[in-house]
Structures are given as C-alpha cells and as structure tokens.
Please model this.
Amino acid sequence: MQHALVILKPDAIQRKLIGKIISRFEEKGILIVGMKMTYISKELAQENYAVHEGKDFYDPLIRYITSGPVVIMALKGVNVVKVGRKLLGATFGHDAEPGTIRGDYAISNRYNIIHCSDSPESAEKEINLFFRKEELLDYDTIDLKWIYDTSEGKSV
Ligand code: CMP
Model:
C-alpha cells in the first residue's frame, strides 16, 4: 500500500468544505491514517513548496497556505497518489473536470482548495514534514475485505 499527503487549504476551511472533501476520500475506499487541523508556519510552507521557489506565484502561494487553518491528512491505499490526484482534478479550478474536488469547488488558479503529493517519493517527504511517526496510525477498517480482494493475503 502507498501513502499520500493531502492538505485542505485555508479556502476549504473558510468555505466549510471539510466534511464534503473528506467524504470523497472515504467513499473511494481510501484510509485516513493521520489527520490534524493546524496552521502551517512560513518555514514549513517554504519547505513544502521549495520546488516552486523563484516562480512568480511562490510568494503569494506561501501567503495563501499560511493565511488560516488547514486540515492535513496522511492517506493510505493502493496507488493512492495517482488516485488522490485524480480525485482532486487539474491544478487550476477552471480547468478541473466537474466531478473532481477542484472541478466542483474551485475556479481560481491559486485558491484551488486542496493539495495532494505528486509522487510516492514526495508523499514520504511531505508526510515526514507534517507528522511525527507516532501520529500515524496502523489500523484496518472492517470493510477492508470488501474494498479490496484480500483473500490471497494481499490487497488486490
Ligand atoms: P498545489 O497542487 O498545492 O501546488 C502548488 C500550488 O501553487 C498550486 O496547488 C496552486 O495553489 C498554486 N499555483 C500553481 N500554479 C500557479 C499559478 N500559475 N498561479 C497561481 N497559483 C499557482
């Protein structure tokens, strides 16, 4: 199983979309193994978005992500990075297909509601940035055997 980090950005919280967005992941069969509501410090934001340093949207992006409370989740599932990014839709709200989270709730380039790791490697890095080891929970839900075929000892 793979992990991914998701951030419900300040606009999602201000627009009271937390419940609706979390439902999308739960209904897909993705397991939430870590979750917190917090402010992201400027230092942490700069570290998380280091790949964008120097781009014209970098400073406003740091202001945006630090502008209010966020909800951060560590997710677990088969191919969860790819699945998560599909659930989010295209980066810009106006490009995102209806039915995706951004397609349904965002129209802006920057205020795009939600972030998801773009590779398993960045997922590990981002999860380590936002969660301590003991904040990640190792558990299964009772419906696991109906979400995946587990009859052969692995989740298919
Ligand atoms: P995210 O998927 O979190 O990754 C980087 C973020 O920067 C992106 O979502 C947007 O919030 C923002 N972003 C990316 N490109 C632009 C852009 N061209 N103009 C404004 N904001 C952008």
In short: The chain has a mean pLDDT of 97.
